[in-house]
Amino acid sequence: MARRTSTHLMSMVVLAVAAVGLLLAGGVALAMIFGPPDLARPGMLAGIVIAGMVLALGALWLLRDALDGHFRDIARLRGLAVALRAGDRVGENFPVAEDAEAGQLREALLSLADDSRNRASAPDNRLALVLGALNEAVVVITANGQVSLVNGTARALLGSARVEVGTSVFAALSRESVDAGLAAARAAGGAAVVAMETVDGQIFDGKITILSEDGGAVLAMVCSHGDAATEVSHDLSLHDLPPESPPPTDDMELAALPVTVLDVETTGLDPAIERIVAIGAVRMHGTSLFRAAAVDTLVNPGVPIPRASTAVHGIADATVAGAPSFSALSGDVLSLIGDSIVIGHNIGFDLAVLNAEAARAGVAWAAPVTIDTCQIAAALDPHEVALDLDDVAARHGVAVFGRHTALGDALVTAEVWRRLMARLAERGITTLGGVRAFAATATRVIARQRAAGW
Question: What stretch of H or E contains 233?
Answer without folding.
Answer: strand 233-234
